[in-house]
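Question (not urgent): is this output format expected?
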Amino acid sequence: MLFNSFSYLVFLPIVVLLYWLVANKYRPLLLLIASYIFYSAWNPIYLILFVGMTLVNWIFGLLMAPAVRLRKPVLVAAIIFNLAILCYYKYVNFILNSIADCLNLLQFSGPGAASHLPDDWRVNVILPLGISFFTFEFLHYLIEVFKGGQAVKNPVKFAVFAAFFPTQIAGPIKRYQDFIHQLEQPSVFQIALLEKGFVMVLHGLAKKVLLADNLAIYVNHIYGAPGAATNLDLWLATYAFAFQVYCDFSGYTDVAIGSALMLGLNVPPNFNVPYMASNIRELWHRQHISLSNWFRDYVYFSLGGSRCSRGRIYLNLLITTALAGLWHGAAWHHVMWGLFQGLSLIVNREWMRFYEKIRWLKKFVQTKLWTVVAIFITFHAFCLSYVFFRADNNAIALHILGRMLRLWYAAPHGRPLFLSTQGPLVAPLVPLIIAALVIAQILSEYLRRNSFWAKTPRLLQAIYCAFLIFMMLTLMPDEAHRFIYFQF
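Got this back:
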């Protein structure tokens, strides 16, 4: 069930109404039933997999009680179980394709010699929605229980933790201690939370329908045939894709957080104006926060984190970010995108080491002028990394990057698409949309800090919400597009 579908706009109010009508002790069961209905709307057969993984991980958690001597083998078995399922559904063809490519490079003969996976090697499997997210939540739970956390004994509450429909498909990745604690506390209806949740849902849908989906039309057109686009169009499409991903995923997060608030529940934030970050490390503290924290806590720290030599620290960063890239997609260009993030983090660390030794430079770095320059550099570096994320493969990505970096040759094939009458109707509006989003990034932190929305008269709030609804009904694309992170 898509958040931006009519069925969800019917489903959510019904669940919210029933949730506040039933007694507290029945609410976890109601949430579980609603969450399983939500998941079944996509493909009912995969609900069996979801329920099976939930049951097995609940049992694994119980088997890791503090007094049990075989806690570590149980944890290893649990991690293998979850990663094996994730690898089968998400990475099996990627692994087989990579083996075939390696055999081809080594000039072996036989079925592996083809540059692409032969049909008799391919595994016909459908990627279950949200498997990357709920698998990571299971792993978080198991590791924390092994470290001494309290296992969840109530199977219904544990199942709700994994299946909670607002975060089920694309996060944010919850921490079980915080979420289970909320389920165990009596909930009291608050009209303020209901209103706040409604506005967040509306904002999230507007980001998706008005901005992300319309930017996607231009991005898909340019990246679908990059050879026919001017260099200026490639830059604009890359900017557009950066904001498409932000509006798409932060829009999903807003709907998720808003839906949870309407039920009196809090889930962790996932975005904090990321494109206003002055370095790549800060950016990842502001973007996809729950996933960044997960990889920090369970991959980077497990490898040794920053408690080792400089070379080992940098290796830990590259391994962590490469795995994060692979998590985003079963393709080598996603791995390259992850490695780009790792290299950016290394460059940032080396830059910090360099300017700390020079007094005047250290003083300059603390000025507002440098902050503006640093934000500009960080944003553009991140945009360049997105070329690997969006392109179909590494070869195409490198070709696009090579052309984009020829700044003196902006339009070798004539007028840019966004200035012509050919191409998508939204193309001439793309520069204006991007400019508006940049301004919004600059203003949003100030407006939030000064509680602008809370101080706005309720009549103006109502007019604003009605305007958003009207704009979505008027300007939404013909077809509802899935959220980008649904594929993960």
